Amino acid sequence: MIPYITAILCILLSRLAFGNNLLCGKQKVAYLFWSILPIFILLAFRADSVGMDTPNYIRSFENQKLPEHLQYEDDRIEMGYVFLEGLIAKTLSNPQWLFIITALFICLSIGHFIYQTAKEPMLALLFFITLGFFQFTLSGIRQSIALSITLWLYPFIKQKQFIRFIIGLFIASLFHKSAWLFLPAYFIAQQKITPIRILIELLGFLLLFLSAERLLLITADIMDYNYGIEETGNGYIFFIIVLLITICGIFNRTAIIQQNPTNKYVLNLNFISFSLWGLRLISRTAERVTLYYMPYSYLLLEEMIMSQKKSIKQFYLFIVILLAISLFFYRLSKDSSISPYTFYFE
To answer: pLDDT tens digits, residue range 94-149?
Structure first.
């Protein structure tokens, strides 16, 4: 647990080092660099025992180093990832470079997204680490690359640059075809937030939930999962978290949008996240799809806290940080695939 504790402490203590004022410009960049650095180290220098799929990625990497006639082929692997993996395997040889290069891109993407969108980078980064995103990146490299690419597409949604958005989504799909499931984000984010629209979205969620089985079967086919509807009793914790974020976001939407007018996009994208977590209660097929939309739940939670009056903001900060960190370490204690953490050189 010590490496994970160190990473969390760096996020918190680095923020204290910069004082109580809001960070901007070079200060914001410096904070994000020093606080993300431990995350990069954990992603880049992990042993093959860290992450459920890590051994499979190493085997696939080693396969790329074999003569072409001895290599096995997996039609499920997207061509973008095959090209990247082959390039690294043929030029750098050691599979650790695969983790280093992908970790660099993932951390750069998270840092850039937070720099561009979050008023308080410490909170946004903490949510990325403690609320599921980071834990997934320790295992699913292909989709983590696709997820990271979509983080760069948010400005195209705000600026209504559909062609650039589609091109970016196509590039992301070259690493994991599930990236196309982020396509609705462009259209839903543009909707006006009104009481009638909120009611329509709630009715839409109900219809989505009722037709969940068919939708999840289609999603499983798209993502090449070899199971159908796998029922599960898990997912309630995150569903409740996103439900609370959604409810609080709706009631505080005026203050949130006044703080930053582009937060209307965040409110809409969070509702997709909430809807998908509703489907997650039925099957774990939906869980990986939620990862494309969870960054906007993190951002909404951060913006909601920062929009509160100063007299109560500190209380919310303390409670939310405490709960997020507690949940993180609770989930780590239950996940033997990433805990205990070991470095590759140990």
So the answer is: 999 999 999 999 999 999 999 999 999 999 999 999 999 999 999 999 999 999 99
Side-chain half-sphere CA neighbours of 174 within 13 A: 13
Asked if residue 182 lies in contact with residue 172, where contact means CB atoms within 8 angstroms, the answer is yes
C-alpha 338/C-alpha 76 separation (Å) is 25
Residues 6+ apart with CB under 8 A from 237: 327
* pLDDT band with cut points at 50, 70 and 90 for residue 277: confident
Distance (Å) of CA 87 to CA 58, 65, 90, 103: 14, 10, 5, 16
Q: Measure the CA–CA gap between 91 and 83, rounded to whole angstroms.
A: 12
The model's pLDDT over 53-71, given as tens digits with 9 standing for 90+, comes to 999 999 988 888 776 645 5
What is the spatial distance between Cα 50 and Cα 54, in angstroms, rounded to a whole number?
A: 7
144 CB-contact burial (10 Å; exposed 0-12 / middle 13-18 / buried 19+)? buried
Measure CA of the first residue to CA of the last residue in the chain; give whole Å.
Answer: 15
Quick one: how far is CA 87 from the chain centroid? 26
The count of other CB atoms within 10 Å of the CB of residue 324 is: 19
- CB-CB neighbours of 344 under 10 Å: 15
Supply 218's token pair.
Answer: 């289609």
From CA 313, how far away is CA 232, in angstroms rounded? 37
| 90 Cα distance to chain centroid | 30
Asked if residues 181 and 289 have their Cβ atoms less than 8 Å apart, the reply is: yes
Q: Note the helical H segments in the chain.
A: 2-17, 25-44, 54-64, 79-91, 96-117, 121-130, 133-137, 141-151, 154-158, 162-173, 184-189, 195-210, 212-222, 236-251, 253-259, 263-280, 287-290, 294-306, 310-334
Among the listed residues 344, 312, 252, the one whose alpha carbon sits nearest the alpha carbon of residue 48: 344
